[in-house]
Amino acid sequence: MEQKPDYDEQQELRSPWEWVILIAFSGAIMGFGWLVYLLVQDAPRRWDFGQLPDAPAESIYSSEEPRGKAQRQIRPLPEAVPLPPAPGGKQGGE
């Protein structure tokens, strides 16, 4: 009579079942990828963003006033309130 191994890791499957399990898992992963490929559509690509202003003086959160009218990229947040001017005309950190 064949002795049963102490641990599950020591049990061996017969050779055909090893290949069946391996092929079944591989097929499931490939099938899922193929299904996602068919169901998820490509988004239109627009890579030409142009030239966007990104200087700190053009930010609504900046302590300096911009020199010219800045093109607004996004709407200001509702909680965005400019800081009050520093007392005595001192800049922050001085």
Radius of gyration: 32 Å
Helix content: 25-40%
Shape: elongated
Low-confidence stretches: none
- Work out the number of β strands: 0
Describe the structure in your own words.
It contains one helix and no strands. Helix content is 27%, strand content 0%. It is elongated. It starts with 14 loop residues before the first helix and ends in a 55-residue tail after the last helix. The chain is an all-alpha fold and 94 residues long. The longest helix is centred in the N-terminal third of the chain and has 25 residues, at 15-39.
Spell out the key features of this protein.
single chain, about 90 residues, mainly alpha, elongated
Characterize this entry briefly.
By secondary structure, the chain is mainly α.
Task: Draw up the topology in text.
Layout: H1 15-39
